[in-house]
Amino acid sequence: MKRLRWIVFILICSGSVIPLLYAQSRSELQLGSMVSQQRLQQTVHDLVKCGNRLGGTKSGDNAAAVLMDRLKSYGFKPEMIADPQKLTYSNDHWHLQIEQPKRLGGLIQHEWLAGYSPSAKQESLRLSFVQSPHDIDEDSIGKGAVLIDQHPSKNLYEKLTDAGARCILSYVAMHSMAYSNWAMISTLNESDKNPVPVFNISNLAGQRLREELGHGTTVSITYSCKTTIVPGKPKTVIATLQGQADEYYIVCAHGDSDSGGPGADDNASGESGVLELARIFKLLMKKNNLPPPKYSIRFILWGSEYFSASSYIKLHEKELKKIRGVINFDEIGIGKTRNCLYFEGNDVPQNDDLLRLFERVGEEFVGKKGFWKESTTNPSQGGTDSYVFLPKYLDYLDVPEVKIPSITVFTAAWNEPKTMRQTRGWSSKAWKGNPDSVTLDYSPYYHSSLDIPVFTTDREPANMIWGVKAVGIALLRLLW
Ligand SMILES: [Zn+2]
Question: Of 1, 130, 229, 412, which has fewest CB within 10 angstroms of its CB?
Fold first, then answer.
């Protein structure tokens, strides 16, 4: 024991340990101080201005061009990859208003056209309410518009259109914590043959219309819409920070607003996080004389959620072993009720080492000025690009199975809080709730017409900062 102490003493005196630790923590501190809130917010604004950025559309191409420019200005030589073709849509413009009675003229606001709705010329229609597929009466619909209190399933949509409905107004009655004055956005079958458009409207507007119809009021609407449904190739943007070995980590986010809405939180916030990390690492290497990292980092903005990551895997099928890990951002722009940073998913054994590192970072920095107030790992939720790299999906893609740690960092998941049992052995010291469970925070604007900066990323910009700091510090520890 005494000998060990002497060795440590000699190492310290000879200067071998302190500079190493000092250099690392100095880089971490420096990284923390370089994260720019203003830049993170501005990037979200710039991306949201491009529209819904759906892969393969003009809006998606414009957003990819913004990402390319930004990465070039940081000193990268980014590549833009055209993914395979898929059927895409863009909602060019629409109009929907209550015509009669006049007193309800301003009732519908923040409505949104469902994905893959066809174009329709302006017309005025009488509105009726339909409760369920069993409640459809051709005579009462009478080639008019129909109000429903749910998103139309394939079956309901077909039955309504078969019965003569020419336009559908849909609201989601079951959500008490979201969509009161704004619309949850739905997507129809991925087809250019859908016969009639669907307008998603807010809960309050939907309920009011239902009441009026229930009291026998004659309600008529006027509407029109212009959409484009054509094949297109999503554009994925990749920038590489070259490492010493021929292996790499992926830091990524989906670049489209998969709901078809403005998508500030989901997922311009994540894209902004990836860009900010790319900028900082490039600058840190320049300013701080950091050597090239042990492994490369590929910063990737997927043109289309799931679709582009799947195509990337197919393209790199023979060299998947080179991917040492995937760190995905999805929704780091708001967390309605907590100030928590989540690292998912701790129920996947191959994620153990990577998530332990994130958990340590979470615990070390929790409560410090400029950092998160809570953090935790959580069980798998699915539904985002990190899952494309896990065995189940690799199997689905029919590529050789490789064990790639693949995690997602976020501050909100769905449209209401969700509490679940914590995975055994994963209670975090940085979690303030019951140690045996974990509650995922939510966004009231999830997949909605008002997922715009003023309600999400401008309201809680600290969330993006936390995401960038946690991933940045973890990468410094992994790669330098
Ligand atoms: Zn998302």
Answer: 1
Buried b (16+ CB within 10 A) or exposed e, 151-165: bbeeebbebbbebeb
If you measure from the C-alpha of residue 342 to the centroid of ligand 1, how many angstroms do you get, rounded to a whole number? 14
Q: Decide the pairing of beta strands 295-302 and 245-254.
A: parallel
- Averaged over successive runs of 10 residues, the pLDDT of the chain (480 residues) comes to 49 47 75 97 98 98 98 98 98 97 97 98 98 88 95 96 97 88 97 98 97 98 98 98 96 98 98 98 87 96 98 97 98 97 98 98 96 98 97 96 96 96 98 97 97 98 98 97
Could you check whether the bond before residue 216 is cis, i.e. omega within 30 degrees of 0? no
User: Ligand 1 centroid vs 273 CA: distance in angstroms?
Assistant: 13
CA of residue 152 to ligand 1 center, whole Å: 22
Are residues 241 and 360 both part of a single domain? yes
- Domain interval for residue 238: 35-85+233-479
Distance 163 CA to ligand 1 centre (A): 35
Q: Please, how many CA atoms are within 13 Å of residue 164, restricted to the half-sphere of its CB? A: 13
How far is the centre of ligand 1, averaged over its atoms, from the C-alpha of 35 (Å)?
Answer: 22
User: Helix (H, G, I), strand (E, B), or coil: what is residue 29?
Assistant: helix
C-alpha 479 – ligand 1 centre gap (Å) = 27
User: Do 81 and 104 lie in a common domain?
Assistant: no
- Alpha carbon of 280 to those of 32, 247, 269, 271: distances in Å? 10, 21, 17, 14
Cα 314 to the center of its chain, rounded Å? 23
Ligand 1 mean position, distance from CA 258 (Å): 7
**pTM for this structure?**
0.94
Question: What is the DSSP code (8-state) at residue 133?
Answer: G
Q: Which amino acid is at 41?
A: Q
- CB-CB contact of 150 with 249 (8 Å): no
Shared domain check, 383 and 344: yes
